[in-house]
Amino acid sequence: MQPEEAKQRIEELRATLQTWAKAYYEDDNPITTDADYDKAYHELVELEEAFPEFQSADSITQKVGGEVAEGFEKVRHDTPMLSLSNAFNKEDLVAFDQRIRRLTSADFSYVCELKIDGLAIALKYENGQLVQGATRGDGTIGENITNNLRQVTSIPHQLPEAIDLEVRGECYMPKESFVKLNDMREAEGQTVFANPRNAAAGTLRQLDSRVVKQRQLSAFMYGLVHQPTDGLSSQETALEQMSDWGFQINPDRTVCQTIEEVWSFIETYQEKRMALPYEIDGIVIKVNEFSVQNEIGFTVKAPRWAIAYKFPAEEALTEILDIEWT
Ligand SMILES: NC(=O)c1cnc(OC2CCCC2)nc1N
């Protein structure tokens, strides 16, 4: 390629990448695929190396902390991460139960799990090795925060079996870590986090993983992107299997046969929640048997076979710093 032609191509690539990077990082609205972006970026790097006379300090390839490096790579969830419908009182739960019983004639049970108040994450393992950790994002596109999630001690880097696996869970900041962090930030004249969920979100947004390590996050896993062939027949057996694989699974759960039993579990934890070493904002009730879950299916955005009972809100905490994960 002649120098004049290279100069032309370099300028064209710089302009295009600048536009794409702005849309991706500043407008949070990617206008191109990651593959196209990477392809153009690497063509520019090669041309600048081949024609150093056209190198320029303000080229996008020279920005270390610039918008290109800023922020996290996006990842697509092969299986969308769903959200949950909410229930706010016993009547809502009775209605939920009646809907389920209209949709299936099969016998089934419920699993009640504490609703950990953190950030939903998805972990991918290949041959038993942790290869990717991502945020939920909008349920389809999340952010690749693998390096940060490697600093979370309860997330295994290697499983006892060389299997391919994807698990979902909640990354959270224990109450004790939260108090310590805010005391330190206050002493340094920094803004404090309003609650552990915001502190966890703010921590996972850090580009420097060493900061994540200091902040002692943890994670409970609660979902297995399971294959019909994996022989697991229910949520409870999946939770037990995930525990055997080394994931931290929340022990405060129970299998219920009726909504009455669900309600008494809810009342128990309405009281006990203050004594827990982490924050919960409700109880998640799921149909236990996968065959019945599959029969009942999903609405556009949430499973029909699960609901989140939300505890009544505490007195409003003044939101000193509210980091919303986009
Ligand atoms: N915050 C939690 O602790 C929690 C959230 N979600 C779920 O399950 C949802 C996920 C997709 C269908 C049901 N379980 C949980 N324990």
Describe this structure in words.
- This protein is α+β, with helices and mostly antiparallel strands and 326 residues long.
- The chain is 36% helix and 19% strand.
- The protein has helices at residues 3-26, 34-50, 90-103, 146-149, 175-187, 196-204, 209-214, 235-244, 259-272, 290-296, and strands at residues 74-76, 86-87, 110-116, 119-126, 129-135, 141-143, 165-172, 218-224, 254-256, 280-287, 306-310.
- A 5-stranded mixed β-sheet has the order 2-11-10-3-9. Strands 5-4-7-8 form a 4-stranded antiparallel β-sheet.
- Helix 1 (3-26) runs antiparallel to helix 2 (34-50).
- It is globular and about 80 Å long.
- It starts with a helix and ends in a 16-residue tail after the last strand.
- Mean pLDDT is 89; it is low at 64-69 and 316-326.
- Bound molecules: 4-amino-2-(cyclopentyloxy)pyrimidine-5-carboxamide (0OX).
Outline the fold blueprint.
Blueprint: H1 3-26, H2 34-50, E1 74-76, E2 86-87, H3 90-103, E3 110-116, E4 119-126, E5 129-135, E6 141-143, H4 146-149, E7 165-172, H5 175-187, H6 196-204, H7 209-214, E8 218-224, H8 235-244, E9 254-256, H9 259-272, E10 280-287, H10 290-296, E11 306-310
Parallel strand pairs: 2-11
Antiparallel strand pairs: 1-6, 3-9, 3-10, 4-5, 4-7, 7-8, 10-11
Helix pairs in contact: 1-2
This protein binds 4-amino-2-(cyclopentyloxy)pyrimidine-5-carboxamide.
